[in-house]
């Protein structure tokens, strides 16, 4: 997709839809192109939500190399943070600060990513701040996936039982989303409910969109 095509769409739709298209380009696997489009759009339309999207994409890419090892996914808690691009993270933080002047959904997602990115270790993560940001996000832009992210933060702040209760509440909305049973497995494991955790991991494997992710959950479910 060219910038001209993006701008053409902007004349036909709300800017929020244009940002959504760029984010879709990113999630579809064209990361470099999406970052480029978001950067060009930030020059043409320097608004908080555009800065938020650009910051979110840059922060995600700054941590991308640590998410897999030998083609296998690595959970956030186990990632080698020395592989994160600290220079890229430092360059993205001012964009987050500009984005938060508007407080829209991309700004809040970028702020959540920034809190993760600035933590030197998983244990040092400011989960209370992340939970507060998720509270704002689900209030202004409710979505099941944002609610699931909030459940993870809730578990970190208030314990796995709180996270499990929230995840179970989301079952009707996210029953076929593989990360719901994956999160439940983590909460159940922390509570010592190992058989249930194993069943949840197997469910995540059955629902996983790729063979690599399915194998990860099957391996986690193995005794």
Automatic annotation (TrEMBL):
InterPro entries: DUF6596, TPR-like_helical_dom_sf. SUPFAM superfamilies: TPR-like (SSF48452). Pfam families: DUF6596 (PF20239). Residues 16-99 form the DUF6596 domain. This is RNA polymerase sigma factor. It comes from Kibdelosporangium banguiense.
